[in-house]
Structure to design on (120 residues):
């Protein structure tokens, strides 16, 4: 038996400096929607198969590293079209291609590393 049962839902929590600013980015720039909100202490950003929890960085509240050491990827069907949509919203992307996929790296307003990927 496995320690964790099989699931198709991905969950991640990102410690953020400004909850409202990051909720705005994940909804209005990336197109996720805010599924759950607990005032100024928690927000869940959701799209098919992924939930990203946003939690404010509060000194002493949680042992979070000073810098985010996480990278979250979104697989897309048409990376060029998606990249153009993000660039129109002010997101700067850096592309990398290999024989397997095309990647487009960017950051949220807090500096969390995000990327798009399209399998060739």
């Amino acid at each position: 038996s496995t320690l964790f049962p099989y699931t198709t839902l991905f969950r991640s929590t990102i410690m953020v400096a400004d909850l409202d600013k990051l909720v705005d980015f994940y909804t209005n720039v990336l197109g996720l929607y805010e599924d759950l909100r607990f005032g100024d202490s928690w927000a869940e950003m959701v799209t098919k198969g992924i939930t990203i929890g946003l939690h404010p960085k509060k000194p002493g509240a949680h042992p979070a590293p000073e810098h985010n050491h996480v990278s979250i990827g979104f697989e897309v069907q048409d990376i060029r079209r998606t990249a153009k949509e993000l660039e129109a919203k002010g997101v700067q992307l850096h592309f990398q291609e290999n024989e397997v996929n095309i990647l487009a790296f960017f950051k949220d307003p807090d500096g969390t590393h995000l990327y798009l990927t399209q399998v060739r």
